[in-house]
Structures are given as structure tokens and as C-alpha cells.
Amino acid sequence: MAETEFTSAESQVLSRYFTNLDRPVFALRNLPEVVKGALFSRYSRTEKSLRRVLLEEFINEPDSGFEALTGNPQDSDDMVAVRHAEDFYERVLVGYGDDSVAELAGAHVAVERTSTLAAKALEDSRIGISPLEKSTRYVRFDRPGPDGRHLYHRGPELAHPDYEPAVDALFAVYSSLVEPVTEAIRARYPIESGETDRAWKSATRAKALDLLRGLLPAGALTNLGLFGNGRAFEYLITKMAAHELPECRRLATDIHQELALVIPAFVKRALDDRYGRPAADRMAAIRETTASLARRGAVEPVGGPMVKLVEFDPEAERKVVAAALFPHSNLGLDDQTADPGPVLEALLGDRANRRQRVPRALEHAHYTFEIVANFGAYRDLHRHRMLTQDRQMLGTSLGYDIPPGLADLGMADLFRAAIEKAANAHPALERDAGPALAQYIVPLAFRVRWYFRANLREVYHLCELRTTPQGHPDYRWVAQEMFRRVAEVHPRLASYAGFVDLGPGDELERRRSERRIDEKLGALDHPVR
């Protein structure tokens, strides 16, 4: 049983900070991140309960400044008290913690009006950071800013005569096509019996924006939210400070400045002269040296998107079976032998839906894919973090995709003309500003080459999730081809991925999903009693 010896006065104080005072499992609330981090840091070095540590060593400790941190400072004297309190908690962290303690304190950060390119750099962190970005499917990107201009990145590094005219032309065509394409889609897919006006309009507008997103340049401004722990944010800031794009380096400074207000003890080293700056300088030096050593040559446009299986393990099935048997045996991993059929059936044979995740044993089978697809598809698939991935520079040499739906609607010519105008401006920007900055002008319709190295467990997750009929056709095709490549080399391992959909997608991708949303909303309005 948990401690129940708190006095009524102590209980009254503690009840604000814990979800219960008499059970062994409880959550923390109403505590700043620095207090939570310091609290857990001390907790790992004492026999006391967490509630008792908070009460005796923080709340009742005169030097802790607990009240200043958990109250609402209003004047300069209060802010001085807060700084003193933060110094106290930093001493606790130094005395009782290590780097892992920073994983117990988190923060939310909003990053607005940043380019799609910079957003990809922020989202590239795989562990400890959870990003959520403005959707090209549900949000129009042609709403002007306060100055009446289109929203795309205009840093001083992009003061090139060809840049703004080409990007403005992309936005102009995007804006001019949104309503005609939406109306044409609504004429082709009229509202059905039992379908709400809300669901129909949402599905048809999503279809239109899906068809047009390829016009958006990589410099288009987006918004994103990031949640992460202190350790992950510290590394993210350092990595952004080493980035080749000036915009990303500015973001490193801005994010550090804001996080220093909420989790200062956990990000103080991100840009300091002892750890952060030398680490950032080393990352930049490695990038420059490896770039000078890499081979480059002429690249011909490819005929279309491509998924190639570059590497796989012929022993994958045996390794998966051995890993599955290992925890139930007293023998070594190399001594695990059994008929694979019954073992795989036991592991995978009765999954009822894709949310029943496959076991960890499948992580012993690895695959490396090389993918060529448009940057819009990459933007979606890049969100998968339980794998290793990297991409090449976004450019125009691999060609671009025109959505078949636009040609069907007779609106492909305007799309093509705007894309090619941007492509014609790209070489001059690349020559004068360099390939990294030239990426800003490239529309999302252009293809990029990247690789995924993933284990079979993640292949199951990615392919089952990204092949659902309501998915965007571009990334859906990539996920289907990834699965086909695995099935060719390991048919039995792939045969249990019963929720991969290799059929055609829905013509109006969001229609069924929007209907399900209506059903859920209706259930909330009229709960079953």
C-alpha cells in the first residue's frame, strides 16, 4: 500500500500536485517542468516516496523558491525570486541527476511561419520529439500574410531576381485553381444519400488540395508544434545550429531562447561554448568534408516514382524465429531452432486489426529501400521515425509528377506551366546561391531520392498504415511497392501482413473517413444509455 500518513494540512497542499495521495500509481500535475525534472532526479537517490520528497525537500525547503515557480509572478521582484528558484533546481539536477533526467521534463514549442524545408529539418529528429505539422490536405496555403503577399520564405540569403517571381507564379496558379478544381470534383462526386453536407464538402475540398499540393514550393510557410523532452530538445538545437540553411540556424537560436524560459536547466548546454557550439561546428565540418568526397554526375529524369530494395538479409526468417523463441528458452540465440511455420503462426496468425502490433522478434529482419518519389510523398513518409532515413538535395533533375486527376479534369496545363517556370528559375538560383538554398524554389511535385532502412516490424506498421484506401495516392503507391519488394524476397514473413491494402484507393479518398467522423460526432451528441 502507498503511504497514507499525511496530515490533513499536508494532504491539502499535496492534492494540488498529484492525482491521488493514497494509491501506488499517480500522475503529477500543476508543476513546472524544471520542478518535475529535479523531483525525479532526487527521487532516484532516496528511499522516500515521491510525494514525501516533494513535500519535504521542495515545498518545505526555504531555499527552493517553490512558491515562486508554481505561482504567478507579476513584478520584477517576483521574477528575481523565480531566477533564484531555478538556480536551486539546477543545483539539484547537478547533484543527483545525469543526462537521462532531462528525458523526464518536456515542453511544447510552436514554430510558425517557417518554411517546409526547415520544418523537415525540425522533424528529422527521431527520438524524444513528437511533431505535428500543418496539413496540405486540409488547409489552403494561399491565404496572404498581413502585408498581402503570399506566405513563403524570404530570407536575405534568397535575394535573387528569379526567386520571388517564380514562387509568386506557383502560388498564383495554386490559388486560381483551388475553387475550379473543387467545383469540378464536386460535380464528379455529388453528395450521396445519407452523407452530410459537412462530410461531402470536407472530402471534396481535401481531394482538390491533394491534387494541387505539388504546386507549393519547398519555401512555402507552414506551422508546426513540437513536444519533446529536454534531452531531445538540447540535441535538436545543437543540430539546427549546424545546419547549412541560415533559416535553420536562426531557428536554433529562437527555439533555445524560448525553451530557456521553461526548461532552462535542460537546454543550457545546447549552444554553450563548452559542449553545444563545438558539437555544432563538428557536425558542419563533417558535412562539408563528406560532401567534398562524394561522387556527383549527370542525373537523367526518371520515368516515374521508383522503389528499389537495395539490401535484405537472406537469414531473416531464421533470425525472427530464433528471437521469438529466445525468451522462452534457456539456450543461446544461435541455438534456437524450430520449424518456422508454427512459430510464425503463433506470432502473427490471429491479428484482428493493424493496431495489434506485431512482436519485437520481427525487428531482426532488416531491409534497405531506395525510393524516388515527389517531395509531397516524402513529406508524408518522413514522419515515420522508427527507421533510418536520409534524403538527397531537392532539385529538378529527377523530373516531376502531374496528378492524373488534374488531367482527367482538363486542368493539367496550368499546373505544368507553373512547375516548369519554377524549374527554369532553379539553375540560376543554384549557381548563384548554391544547391541548398535553391531547394526553396522547387515545387513539391518534383521528385527526390531518399532511402529507408527499416526492420520488418516497422515495415508492417508503415505499409499497413500508409496503404489504407483514404491515403494520398502518392505515398500509398510507395508503401505498396515497399511491401511488394519484401514479399518477393520473404513471402512467408510478408504473408501475415493482412492489413496491407494492395488494391486501388478510393476515388474520393476522404469520403469514408469523413462519414466515420460524422458517426463518432453523432455518438457523442447522442450517447447510448
Q: Could you explain how this protein is built, in words?
A:
It contains 22 helices and seven strands. The model has no long low-confidence stretch (mean pLDDT 90). With 529 residues, the protein is α+β, with helices and mostly antiparallel strands. The strands form two sheets. Strands 4-5-7-6 form a four-stranded antiparallel beta sheet. A three-stranded antiparallel beta sheet has the order 1-3-2. It is globular. The chain starts with 7 loop residues before the first helix and ends with a helix. Helix 2 (33-43) packs parallel to helix 5, helix 7 packs antiparallel against helix 8 (197-212) and helix 7 packs antiparallel against helix 17 (412-433).
Strand content: 5-15%
Averaged pLDDT: 90
State the total count of DSSP E strands: 7
SSE topology string: HHHHHEHEHHEHHHHEHHEHEHHHEHHHH
Which stretches are poorly predicted, pLDDT < 50 over at least 5 residues? none
**Biggest beta sheet attributes:** 4 strands, antiparallel
SS-based class: alpha+beta
Radius of gyration: 27 Å
Distinct helical segment count: 22
- Categorize the overall geometry: globular
The strand order across the widest sheet is 4-5-7-6
Descriptive labels:
four-stranded antiparallel β-sheet, three-stranded antiparallel β-sheet, globular, 7 strands, 22 helices, 529 residues, alpha+beta
Give a nutshell description of this structure.
The protein is of the alpha+beta class and 529 residues long. It has helices at 8-14, 33-43, 50-59, 66-70, 76-96, 116-123, 163-188, 197-212, 230-241, 246-259, 264-267, 276-293, 316-325, 340-348, 375-381, 404-408, 412-433, 435-438, 456-466, 473-489, 491-494, 511-525, and strands spanning 106-115, 129-133, 221-229, 306-312, 366-374, 388-391, 447-455.
